């Protein structure tokens, strides 16, 4: 019997495209990138799914921060970096621990909020991975409802780590097997790379899933934005001050600085330009942590065609001497990073 005309469904390419987009979740995308369903691929997909869960929990907390007690403000404590700890820092750090504790996926968690790595012994025989993360980047923005971020990197455990000091993490950033960040803004976005390009996802609250937004993001070769805390101007080396004078007197440059590095670097990833956090004369080692901030973001930007350097050495080639090592950072479009380097190398 022929189907009645009113029951025939028209072919709608727009619907097909929309459905395919909605089905491309983060965990599915990782498996597609690896073109494999091997145990290693499934592990990496599951780890990314757990990172996404941490992002959802933190985003939910932030969205209600002004309505809940005990979310905003300082704890009164100081972390291993000597910085005042905000309540949101503690919560976000605990979220990552809780999310991975029962996962069977990672053996260690290393965070800028903890002096030593957090071990999960029951995971160690199988979970051969370490998650390094900055739970809240730009926490000074928390109490003023401005954008924040989380930064993460995944490394494979090397050796037995018998002394419990995670010495194998003191290796170049090129050994990262995945890295990315979560941006908490008007929408919550997750950007990641597993060494096969850079891809962005947006949290769809109606689905509770991070949905693919853009694949294979490429940073422009040059951009108009320079992002730096010019309040430190007189503490910088003269070569950096001379670069800032150059952009001040050169038409076409625009200053953008939010106080949350993830937010600034996300803008530069999409629009081009350069982010600088140089060392100062009192602290030439800089402020940013190599393993939790600089190296993961460098891995992302390099995968998008950008560059990241201390001004003398590519960030991904720097070998850490200690877990919480700091480093200067110049990161962004290749031509803009090269311009800053030219001022440093010429010793202006």
From TrEMBL:
MF term (GO), any: magnesium ion binding
Protein residues bound to substrate: 137-140, 229, 257, 287
InterPro entries cross-referenced by the UniProt entry: FBPase_C_dom (IPR044015), FBPase_class-1 (IPR000146), FBPase_N (IPR033391), FBPtase (IPR028343), Fructose_bisphosphatase_AS (IPR020548)
Protein name (record): Fructose-1,6-bisphosphatase class 1
Residue stretches making up the Fructose-1-6-bisphosphatase class 1 C-terminal domain: 219-344
Biological or metabolic pathway of the protein: Carbohydrate biosynthesis; Calvin cycle
Gene Ontology terms: biological process: fructose 1,6-bisphosphate metabolic process; fructose 6-phosphate metabolic process; fructose metabolic process; gluconeogenesis; reductive pentose-phosphate cycle; sucrose biosynthetic process
UniProt keyword list: Calvin cycle, Carbohydrate metabolism, Cytoplasm, Hydrolase, Magnesium, Metal-binding
Cofactor detail note: Binds 2 magnesium ions per subunit.
UniProt subcellular location: Cytoplasm
A Gene Ontology term for the protein's cellular component: cytosol
Domain Fructose-1-6-bisphosphatase class I N-terminal as annotated: residue spans: 25-215
The reaction(s) this protein catalyses: beta-D-fructose 1,6-bisphosphate + H2O = beta-D-fructose 6-phosphate + phosphate
